[in-house]
Structures are given as structure tokens and as C-alpha cells.
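User: I'm putting together notes for a lab meeting next week and I want to include a structural view of one of the chains we've been expressing. I don't have a solved structure, so I'd like a prediction I can at least talk through. The sequence is below, exactly as it appears in our construct file.
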Amino acid sequence: MKIFPIQELAYGKRHILSDLIPGEYISQAGLGFKKPDQRSHDTGCDCNACDGKGKHIHENDHEVFIILHGKAKMEVDGKTHALCAGDVVICEPGEDHHLISDHDDPCVNVFLHASDLPNIKQRIT
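Assistant: Thanks for the context. Below is the predicted structure for the 125-residue chain, given as C-alpha cells.
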């Protein structure tokens, strides 16, 4: 996992994250409004990166989270890391990752994936 303040992101040749993650295009993106204590991709999630038992792993791509408002924790392979507005997290392939919203100051976040194909899928969670 890597964490960067949003101010340190350089505008790359192709997209804002092109110097940090592979892929020609931002291929998936969404905006998340988390409830207090909400853990993303928890037990029962049926997305293609989840096992339904609480594990969420992308085998072949990075996922980027940008915290826009509030506080959160990023759980990566069972370890938690404190986050606040302005933090940028890059989860690497093979890392089991979950964003957990703060109880008193729930987070709003953007999530992004990059690919060599444009606009594979767009979703809002």
C-alpha cells in the first residue's frame, strides 16, 4: 500500500495517476458516501473481486482511493491505517483491502481503476 497527500499528485502524461499506477486510461471510477463505521466490500458482497466472506482482492490491477471529506481507516491485509481528507491510497494487486468510515466523521471518497482500455465500467457506491 502507498499513501500520498493529494497535493503531491503530479499531472501525468495520460491521466492524473499515470505516474503512479499502470494503465492508459482511468477505466473505472465512482464516488462513495460512507455511513458511520461502514466497511466497504464486507461479508456478502458479490462484486467480482470479493469472495462473499469479507475478502476483496484485485488480482491484476490497482485501486486508488481519494478521501474527499471526513476520516476513515484503510484495512490492508488485516492492518489498519488512519486516513483523513486529502489522503490518496493506492492498493496494489493481491492486497485484501477495505475502506472503513469513521464513526464521528464519516468519509466521502473517490475510487479509481486504470486500464489500457477506456471506460470499462463506471459505478457509484
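A couple of points you could mention at the meeting. Residues 121-125 have pLDDT under 50 and may be disordered. The domain at 2-115 is CATH 2.60.120.10 (Jelly Rolls).

User: Perfect, that's what I needed.
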